[in-house]
Amino acid sequence: MSGTIPPSTPEVVSRSGNTMVLSMGPQHPSTHGVLQVMLEIDGETVVKAEPEIGYLHTGIEKTAEGLFWSQTQTVVERMDYLAPSSNALCYALAVEKLLQITDGIPERAQTIRVLTMELTRIASHCVWLGTHGIDLGAISVFFYCFDLRENILDLQEATGGARMHPNYIRIGGLNGDVPDGFLARLDALIEKFPGRMRELRGLLQANPILQDRTIDVGFLAPEDAIGWGVTGPSLRASGIAYDLRKAYPYTGYETYDFEIPTRTQGDAYARFLVRLDEMEQSMRIVEQARKRLERPGPVMIDDPKIALPPKETIALSMEALIHHFKLISEGFRVPPGDVYQSIESPRGEIGYYVVSNGENRPYRVRTRPPSMYNLQALKGLAPGNLIADLVVMIGSLDPVFGEVDR
Amino acid sequence: MPSTQKPPIAGAAIDPPSLRPPIDDAVIERIAPVELRARLEALKANGFAMLLDIGAVDYLEREPRFDVVYHLLKLAPRPASVSEVGTPERMRLLCGINDGEHLRSAMDLWRSADWAEREIFDLFGIVFDGHADLRRIQMPEDWEGYPLRKDYPMRGPAAERSPRPAFANKSNVVAGTPPSGRTLEALQEQVKRARS
Q1: The domain at B24-162 falls in which architecture?
Q2: Is the separation of the CB atoms in A400 and A81 below 8 Å?
Q3: A residues 331-390 closer than 8 Å to B (CB)
Q4: 3-state SS assignment for residue B104
Q5: Residue A254 CB neighbour total at 10 angstroms
Q6: DSSP secondary structure of A247-302
Q7: A202 and chain B: CB distance < 8 Å anywhere?
Q8: How many Å apart are CA A333 and CA B8, to the nearest integer?
Q9: Residues of B in contact with A337 (CB under 8 A)
Q10: Is residue A55 part of a domain?
């Protein structure tokens, strides 16, 4: 048959012919959440690894079918809890396409969306770097990373009101403009960032222990990466420069000047370097977006049937009050149809296949979770390696289980 | 800006994809289950190297009932630069299938189909023939029913099937004899004694 590939589990010959089955997780600290890996091992060598997921299944896709279009925004943010805004943006873009209002989103809203996305990416990579460091025995990196992340979460709290799930990005624009003092804090972060990156690189990049543990570990060939559906930094570390910000630009990414870091080695160290480079590229975008924020403007679409009226008009205008009441009590309707929208989340291609039947609730919200497809590649990566290296592989794929299990 | 809100279209719930506005997000094709396998093989040979996702939708009143949706991406073998990747072509295959019908697994063409098909089996009950390891992935293995079907209630059947345990009721005095032996009668007796 043309184009067929060999079975998913590579043939690994057990040296002794005497294997045992070991369950790793779901409470194992290095599994970054609730991952269980059923291992068949020969001594310390993994013969077969079968990740068992679903421990964090919360039925978000089902829940979404019972909520208004705007309420769904709050639950999809709970999927990737390290980068909540990327889910929110992708879902909002999908619904905006169905509403056919993509061109009506104000420019300032687009700029702040890009800013939020890139700050989220840095924050998410900070968590990855910190926990990956802990997996490899470099505990102190964790504190440096979380300090930087804390600055970003402060900014998130300032815009959306919550540290973890700000619900800042809404269908049609944003919840509100950035508050007073935001830009000064952003400037402070921009100033702090290069020094902090130098410190992080200095701690890890040339560290012989880290290099020993990651170089040539978890090699992912480009063909395998594509076959497993791996996207994001893990794919780019295998030499494929597929990034949705360049391939299918959204919210004006085509107007920013940045590069897509790639490596060709395809091992855990390459994935580590790609993510570090990505953080710096993200900061480049943040700086460009910061300059555009000097210009004031609206941050929500001018359509009273979709956007909530400004709070201060509700007491003064009858129409505003009616719109507010209708939007809160029955939401807005979205024309029937289906759409696939994807964006580059910190973990890869996050996609939303949204179906509307013309009602005020989504008919179906299907998420393409990048973490799930990335994690699936573990089945191909692990056989033939040591259990200790399995920890490095899981860490270097950067799965988030809220998203894997949904 | 004029409002985008239009009156609802009658019967839109039956087949929303047929009413989709012109959104240029992929090449879309609708295909019958019998032709699906050959089409997927042809697409794979034609350079659609990545299977991004397989989703499913349940259109309860439609014939056929389910849509299985394949999202494919056309990538060059080793595109090393952004310009080489360009804007890769996307393909969306919608395959209508009825309850009880089976589909051929795409796992031997794209490995990423493995968990995607397991998830559809788990949440919609659609069987993929030729899948090496088709079992539940998100729900517990002994779960009954397929949660993402439209006729599956939002709160699940467990609440109706099994009665709440006595300790979960608001007042365990009314529900029966608790382990401590403090029945309703004993409690009333105690109150009476305290009042007298």
Answers
A1: 2-Layer Sandwich (3.30)
A2: yes
A3: 332-333, 335-342, 349, 351, 353, 355-359, 363-364, 366, 368, 372-373, 376, 379-380
A4: strand
A5: 10
A6: HS--TTGGGS-------SS-SHHHHHHHHHHHHHHHHHHHHHHHHHTTS----B-S
A7: no
A8: 8
A9: 16-17, 19-21, 23
A10: no
Question: What number of C-beta contacts closer than 8 Å exist between A and B?
Answer: 196
All residues at 6 or more sequence positions from A146 whose CB lies less than 8 Å from its CB, including other chains? A126, A127, A130
Residue A324 lies in a domain: yes
Cβ contacts of A241 on chain B, cutoff 8 Å? 79-82, 84-85
Q: Do B80 and A338 touch (CB under 8 A)?
A: no
* pTM reported for the whole predicted model: 0.85
A342 in Cβ contact with A90 (< 8 Å): yes
Selection from A241, A233, A207, A235 nearest residue A222 by Cα: A235
* A32 against A114, higher pLDDT: A114
Number of domains in chain A: 1
Q: State whether residue A305 sits within 8 Å of chain B by CB.
A: yes
For B147-176, write each residue's pLDDT tens digit.
888 887 776 555 555 565 555 554 444 444
**Tokens 């964006």 -> residue:** A343
ipTM of the complex: 0.85
Does A28 map to a domain? no
